[in-house]
Amino acid sequence: MSATEQKEKTWEVTFELHGEETTVLMRPDDTILQAAELAGLRAPYDCRRGNCLTCAGRFKAASSYNLVTTLRQEAGGAVTLDSDTFLCDEAKDEGFFLSCCSYPVGPGLRVELGVQKEAWQIQYCDRLRDEATRAAALEAVAQVQRGYSERNPDKFVADLERQFEGEGGVDGAA
Question: What is the structure's pLDDT at 51?
Answer without folding.
Answer: 83
